[in-house]
Specification:
four-stranded antiparallel sheet, 385 residues, 11 helices, binds pyridoxal-5'-phosphate, 36% helix, alpha/beta, seven-stranded mixed sheet, 16 strands
Length: 385
């Protein structure tokens, strides 16, 4: 009887070679340095300068989404996007329990309440069936849309998230949001370069967001972007994220409580360099995935996550899923890999189990709970090949 820990360790090693291997390192070996130096020499390193606009145009071109507004990080992008989509205090917002804490935090910053939903075993994203079932059991029609009949709160929005870069079932989710008058704000923080039925993630709902944190597929050091196809919402986003200042040569007029969320030019310079390399990053990610697929093919009890049907994933983080009978081995496998210098990590603790969110409404979460015991992210840097 082979040991699953040894099998996994050997398979990863056969792809990544020897030595200490990070989970995900940025690759900054292209034109990035030149752009950053140019930015420093221009002295426009902060809120004014040409790179921010250039970076936004590059994002629009690449994604085919009409408007991109660059901001300081993905969490800030989500906070602003939810506000612009119309989320208000005491609204309920559906989010997957299996996500990074930022998804819930952004909802909470607005005084709204996250309502946790289950995930799909295949896509790892919010399951449309789970949303539908939940709505059938709790939604009550009102003059303005729907409310939660047990809490009395307005059901306002849905935030699907494309886990590790794999698009979730957007068509099905969109049709439910239309039926129940929910706004959709896509947390596409992990899915720059991922397409659903030929269209880039983040452009399906009212708004979407990206993150350019150091561990994402493209980094600006820290950064994020708000995406929307709606010109009016884009202009509100631009205004709100730049302190709601009315453009004027000297006067300081602000017509709302805005945010200082604009991305600094220095970060955007780095981002412009990274965007040139995104196509090559995507092809390297796919090559890495092919190598892992070969290495894991003969190993029983574990599968490598594949892009969903009709999707092209960015394969940001390569992901193993242990079979259910092996879930009790998770800790041991993680420890074996870490001890051997391979940085692997499990999924997030479910948001519904985190202290600040323990009292929030949650649908049954059997799949998310099971996945949380079985997910292992393995080294995924583009530099590995
Ligand atoms: C990275 C990430 C964010 C937040 O992005 P930051 O830029 O780190 O604020 C939000 N949601 C998900 C799912 C993420 O992975």
């Amino acid at each position: 009887m082979r040991d699953i820990g040894t099998d996994i360790l050997d398979a990863i090693r056969s792809v990544v070679g020897r030595g200490d291997i990070a989970l995900h390192e940025p690759s900054l070996t292209g034109i990035e340095k030149q752009f950053v130096i140019d930015c420093i020499e221009s002295t426009f390193v902060s809120s004014v300068g040409e790179y921010v606009g250039k970076f936004e145009r590059l994002l629009e071109e690449f994604t085919g989404i009409r408007h991109a507004i660059a901001v300081v990080n993905g969490t800030a992008a989500l906070h602003a996007a939810l506000r612009i989509a119309g989320v208000e205090r005491d609204d309920e917002v559906f989010i997957p329990a299996l996500s990074f804490v930022a998804t819930a935090n952004a909802v909470r910053y607005l005084g709204a309440v996250p309502h946790f939903l289950d995930s799909n075993e295949k896509t790892l994203g919010l399951d449309p069936e789970a949303l539908k079932d939940r709505l059938c059991s709790i939604a009550e029609k009102t003059s303005y849309g729907y409310r939660n009949r047990t809490t009395g709160r307005r059901l306002r929005a849905l935030v699907p998230m494309h886990t590790y870069g794999h698009p979730c079932e957007l068509d099905e989710l969109l049709s439910i949001t239309r039926e129940y008058k929910l706004k959709m704000v896509e947390d596409a923080a992990e899915s720059l370069g991922s397409f659903y039925k030929g269209k880039h993630t983040g452009g399906f709902g009212e708004m979407g967001i990206l993150s350019f944190n150091g561990n994402k597929i493209v980094t600006t050091g820290g950064g994020g972007a708000i995406l929307t196809n709606d010109a009016e919402m884009a202009s509100v986003a631009r205004h709100l994220t730049t302190t709601a200042k009315i453009a004027h040569s000297w006067s300081f007029e602000h017509d709302k409580v805005g945010y200082n969320y604009r991305m600094p030019n220095l970060n955007a310079a780095l981002g412009c360099g990274q965007m040139q390399r995104l196509p090559s990053f995507l092809s390297m990610k796919k090559d890495l995935k092919r190598k892992y697929a070969e290495a894991f093919e003969a190993i029983d009890g574990v599968r490598l996550v594949e892009q969903p049907a009709d999707c092209s994933s960015n394969y940001w983080l390569q992901t193993l899923i242990l079979s259910a009978p092996l879930s009790h081995q998770l800790e041991r496998v993680l420890k074996m890999c870490c001890d051997a210098g391979l940085r692997v990590r499990p999924s997030w603790t479910l948001l519904s189990e985190l202290k600040p969110y323990a009292g929030c409404p949650a649908a049954p979460l059997p799949v998310a709970q099971s996945l949380a015991q079985r997910i292992i992210n393995i080294p995924s840097s583009v530099g590995l090949l």
